[in-house]
Design brief:
The protein has about 800 residues and is α+β, with helices and mostly antiparallel strands. Among the domains are: about 25-210, FAD/NAD(P)-binding domain (3-Layer(bba) Sandwich); about 215-265; about 315-395, no CATH class; about 450-515, no CATH class; about 670-813, no CATH class. Helix 1 packs antiparallel against helix 2 and helix 5 (about 120-130) runs parallel beside helix 8 (about 185-195). Keywords: Cytoplasm, Membrane, Transmembrane, Transmembrane helix. InterPro entries: F-actin_Monoox_Mical (IPR050540), FAD/NAD-bd_sf (IPR036188), Rossman_Mical (IPR057494).
């Protein structure tokens, strides 16, 4: 029979259901003893994982013992294998099994254990569990042992392996002057011991995770002869389509056992493995031990790793052909130059490799790189193992021009001076010794200590010292004081000193990608296109609603003490972005002492003491503390969007967008374009001030703080471009090209491309079309068509509703 190397036990969990006639199990029950002795010798001398599993399966078939019967397997194997070589091994294992902690193999008889990984640790753990009396199943992804590295064994490790019969299974174990063994040979020894103790080993099986137990499941086992159909043993109510898995295990030449698992699943913990049809996927266990390295750390556990200082070494494995010359080569545990200078001098003479030589030339180039240690161990079976350890300085490879620095634990490319990690593919600067996660694919510049994140796609010059905030994806330049938001691509000039620091009072919000200028105290929200002027403490939303709302992110200037102010004890509600007071009120502003309701999403202006309700579009004057009440003040129906002013303010038609004209306080309804003048607080006056109709865009003259009049000021409004014309300045507008000429301010806007002269220290953002001018403290957002002028403390917001030329008479408003 051609045995499957992934199945250790032919009658065990998931063995072949149809034994071949060539299997020793099909032979006569009383074969000569020499056959079993030959199989045992083949099993002991097997030098590959596949051969060990195959010979063990054939030995069990020949002796007619069931490895799945883990409680009695070892006892029956000893009884049926009457061989003097085997008895010497049984003596070793019996002596170990008598240890008091094992309780004669009854300490863990009720435990079913799954061990992941057939390395030395996984196999040794499985052996210990078998001594304790547990049922053990071991899974290994590989189907071969190929790790030839030689290990130096500690004395207590040698004592432990000798107690498990390592010398009986591998006669050359620790026979030389040095106590060492290759990892592959150590795995073979432990694998043989584990199989003899009844451990099920499955190779070629990939572990993907744990499957939690289900509540209800049933199953059945039964015996049947080879002439019977296995399905005949199923209960009558069970149909074949309902059976998830069906396995047949050979017990004897004429009797087999059936095990089936219904579609309802298992009642215990199981492993998610590949291939999914592998029998080990049905094994139910209550103990899981991961010995597969850091990639298989169970949930809830933390992996700790003890790492010493960097050790640089070259490992070479040479085939041991057992020639006379190779036999005469002595094994050495370590040769240091300080103790054997003659050896290294001869090495320099013959090969050119020594302590001397140019430091830039490495050992691989034959340039004589420095060494501190050389070790050579001979593998008895296949290979000799040579370890060359360089001094913790540098080691250069001529092929890849790679520099390894022991001080910074980095691998540096000579061409780009970047670190290349084989596992994480990270890049690290030689001077800054910084480490970046491979998942973000980040690069660090050595000269500027700059951090560039691939997610935010931000790039800065090498001369400036740059840092990136991981949460807000913000780039800051220390020399030029430049702040860049990756999402909105907004740039602020160097004169405005935009930094994340207490001196400039700059606030950056990662969610809304906000920039604040320290000079003008202007705030921009990339998502809602909202502007906040710190001088006038006025907040206007691009959607013509107030800023504090659930959809638009709330952003307040640092000096208004509205958001999270220590004096007002305000909090922020994450769901609606509404300011909530800790005491009992929703929001308290220290400047205006105005109460705001969270349900209506209101706004406070500190200078004009104005409160705006977003739902009803109502204006309340804070000086007279006017309220919307039918008893003492004018009340307007909720359907019409109107504004109420205290004292002598005029109410204008409710259905059309309402306007209020007063001596000092003016506001335009939120549905129309909102305009607020802070200096004179005058807007609507037929004699001296002109208001442009709602359809056109509202503009303000910076010097006289009035609306542009047809007699002394010229206004041209293009499709979507709004500009300011001062007393002595000229404004020219073509359909989509706008020019403003000032003494030192020149602005040219061509569709979406904006240019600002160097004297005005303005910046340009291609994505959000945001302009910030430092000298005039003006801020323009192309999407929301909003302008803030710090000198006149004016906010203007326009919407694209058509072009208008000149000024309109009051009757046209």
């Amino acid at each position: 029979m051609e045995m499957n190397s992934s199945l250790v036990h032919p009658w065990g969990f998931g063995a072949s259901a149809d034994p071949s006639p060539t299997c020793p199990m099909a032979m006569a029950p009383h074969d000569p003893p020499s056959a079993s002795h030959a199989l045992f010798d083949s099993f002991v001398h097997a030098q590959s994982c596949k051969d060990v599993l195959q010979y063990f399966s054939q030995l069990c078939c020949h002796l007619e013992v069931d490895p799945r019967d883990y409680k009695c397997f070892y006892v029956k194997l000893k009884e049926r294998l009457n061989y003097w070589k085997a008895k010497a091994l049984w003596a070793k294992l019996d002596k170990r099994a008598t240890h008091i902690d094992y309780q004669q193999g009854k300490a863990c008889t009720n435990n079913k254990c799954l061990v992941l990984g057939a390395g030395p640790c996984g196999l040794r753990t499985a052996i210990e569990l078998a001594f304790l009396g547990a049922q053990v199943v071991l899974l290994e992804k590989r189907d071969a042992f190929s790790r030839n590295n030689v290990l130096h064994l500690w004395p207590f490790t040698i004592h432990d392996l000798r107690g498990l019969g390592a010398k009986k299974l591998y006669g050359k174990f620790c026979s030389g002057s040095l106590d060492h063994i290759s990892i592959r040979q150590l795995q073979l020894i432990l694998l043989k011991v584990a199989l003899l103790l009844g451990v099920e080993v499955h190779t070629g099986v990939e572990y993907r995770g744990l499957l939690e137990p289900q509540r209800h499941a049933t199953g059945v086992t039964g015996l049947f002869t080879c002439s019977q159909c296995p399905c005949s043993l199923l209960p009558p109510q069970i149909k074949m389509p309902c059976v998830t898995s069906l396995f047949v295990f050979a017990l004897h030449s004429h009797v087999c056992r059936l095990f089936w698992l219904p579609a309802s699943g298992a009642v215990g913990w199981r492993a998610d493995v590949l291939p999914q049809s592998h029998p080990s996927s049905c094994f139910q266990f209550d103990v899981f031990i991961s010995a597969g390295g850091g990639r298989f750390v169970p949930e809830g556990f933390r992996r700790k790793e003890l790492r010493g200082k960097l050790a640089i070494g070259i490992t070479a494995n040479f085939i041991n052909r057992h020639t006379a010359a190779e036999t005469q080569v002595p094994e050495i545990s370590g040769v240091a130059r300080i103790y054997n200078q003659k050896f290294f001098q001869n090495l320099l003479t013959e090969t050119g490799v020594s302590r001397g030589g140019t430091e830039g030339e490495g050992w691989m180039k034959g340039g004589g790189e420095r060494k501190s240690r050389l070790a050579e161990w001979r593998g008895h079976s296949a290979a000799s193992y040579v370890l060359i350890s360089a001094e913790s300085h540098v080691l250069i490879s001529a092929a890849s021009y790679v520099l390894i620095s022991a001080a910074s634990y980095v691998l540096i490319s000579a061409a780009s001076y970047a670190l290349i990690s084989a596992e994480s593919y990270a890049l690290i600067s030689a001077e800054s010794y910084a480490l970046i996660s491979a998942e973000s694919y980040a690069l660090i510049s050595a000269e500027s200590y700059a951090l560039i994140s691939a997610e935010s796609h931000v790039l800065i010059s090498v001369a400036s010292h740059v840092l990136i905030s991981a949460e807000s994806y913000v780039l800051i330049s220390a020399e030029s004081y430049v702040l860049i938001s990756a999402a909105s691509y907004v740039l602020i000039s160097a004169e405005s000193y935009v930094l994340i620091s207490a001196e400039s009072h700059v606030l950056i919000s990662a969610a809304s990608y906000v920039l604040i200028s320290a000079e003008s105290y202007a705030l921009i929200s990339a998502e809602s296109h909202v502007l906040i002027s710190a001088e006038s403490y006025v907040l206007i939303s691009a959607e013509s609603y107030v800023l504090i709302s659930a959809e638009s992110h709330v952003l307040i200037s640092a000096e208004s003490y509205v958001l999270i102010s220590a004096e007002s004890y305000a909090l922020i509600s994450a769901a609606s972005y509404v300011l909530i007071s800790v005491a009992s009120y929703v929001l308290i502003s220290v400047a205006s002492y105005v109460l705001i309701s969270a349900a209506s999403y209101v706004l406070i202006s500190a200078e004009s003491h104005v409160l705006i309700s977003a739902e009803s579009y109502v204006l309340i004057s804070a000086e007279s503390y006017a309220l919307i009440s039918a008893a003492s003040y004018v009340l307007i129906s909720a359907e019409s969007h109107v504004l109420i002013s205290a004292e002598s303010y005029v109410l204008i038609s409710a259905e059309s967008y309402a306007l209020i004209s007063a001596a000092s306080y003016v506001l335009i309804s939120a549905e129309s374009d909102v305009l607020i003048s802070v200096a004179s607080y005058a807007l609507i006056s037929a004699e001296s001030y002109v208001l442009i109709s709602v359809a056109s865009y509202v503009l303000i003259s910076a010097e006289s703080y009035v609306l542009i009049r047809a007699e002394s000021y010229a206004l041209i409004s293009a499709e979507s471009y709004v500009l300011i014309s001062a007393a002595s300045y000229a404004l020219i507008s073509a359909e989509s090209y706008v020019l403003i000429s000032a003494e030192s301010y020149v602005l040219i806007s061509a569709e979406s491309h904006v240019l600002i002269s160097a004297e005005s220290y303005a910046l340009i953002s291609a994505e959000s079309h945001v302009l910030i001018s430092v000298e005039s403290y003006a801020l323009i957002s192309a999407d929301s068509y909003v302008l803030i002028s710090a000198e006149s403390y004016v906010l203007i917001r326009g919407r694209s509703r058509g072009a208008a030329t000149g000024a309109l008479a009051p009757s046209e408003i």
